[in-house]
Design a protein that fits this description.
Elements: E1 2-6, H1 10-22, E2 26-31, H2 34-44, E3 48-52, H3 62-73, E4 78-83, H4 88-97, E5 102-106, H5 113-124, E6 128-130, H6 132-139, H7 153-163, H8 168-175, H9 179-193, H10 201-212
């Protein structure tokens, strides 16, 4: 896997590069701002990019703007946005704009190298990755008439894992249950929430995210 890393804090960038190098991933370029990132992507055309969400000059949403530009020019490049901020709005914007091959992961979680490497591999495979903390924040919202109240604790757990972009097999392995049991839970969840079922993993995530943001 060939990756470009964009992060304006040099020590953080070097740490990410070292983690990826130790995992056998080829970091073909580094950038400290969105402009440098775009140039590096055009030059290297990597398999994936790891992008800090806030970079110079304004330190607001340059990472998301860069993701938009990269996806426009290179639709097949996997995009992993790294953020220090638990803001569901950023994650929802990213996923709604680019439902396939994108991820949003909090920087606190990438201290575990396996999390960073797994997320990059998944976006390269065209999957959708949403940080569990973001999913929990969305699930934890309270509404006057909350349809989530109809779900059992296990169904809520399954819904959260679907929102993270996990396949049925991955959910079964995480919860130590069979694929058929996962399918039954997902059927009940989608039925209770009025969501259309789909075997397409991206559509599943989009359906759940669309519901959670109401």
């Amino acid at each position: 896997m060939r990756v470009v890393v964009a992060e304006d804090v040099m020590l953080t960038r070097e740490g990410i590069v070292r983690v990826l190098g130790d995992a056998g991933i080829d970091v073909v370029a580094q950038a400290g701002d969105a402009e440098g990132l775009i140039l590096a992507v055009r030059r290297q055309q990597p398999d994936a990019v790891a992008i800090d969400i806030r970079m110079p000059p304004t330190h607001t949403d340059e990472g998301l703007a860069a993701a938009d530009q990269i996806r426009l020019e290179f639709p097949t490049i996997g995009i992993l946005v790294l953020s220090s901020y638990i803001d569901p709005g950023y994650a929802l914007r990213l996923i709604e704009h680019h439902p396939e091959g994108v991820g949003y992961v909090l920087k606190d979680r990438i201290v575990d190298p396996a999390v960073l490497v797994d997320a990059l591999r998944r976006v390269c495979d065209g999957e959708t990755v949403v940080d569990p903390t973001i999913v929990a924040r969305l699930l934890g919202r309270r509404r006057v008439q909350d349809p989530l109240a109809e779900l059992t604790p296990r169904e809520l757990e399954v819904l959260g894992l679907v929102a993270e972009g996990l396949s049925n097999g991955a959910i079964a392995a995480r919860l130590f249950i069979t694929n058929r049991t996962v399918e039954a839970h997902i059927y009940q969840v989608f039925s209770k929430l009025g969501l259309e079922e789909s075997a397409d993993s991206h559509r599943r995530v989009l359906a759940v995210i669309a519901f959670l943001r109401r």
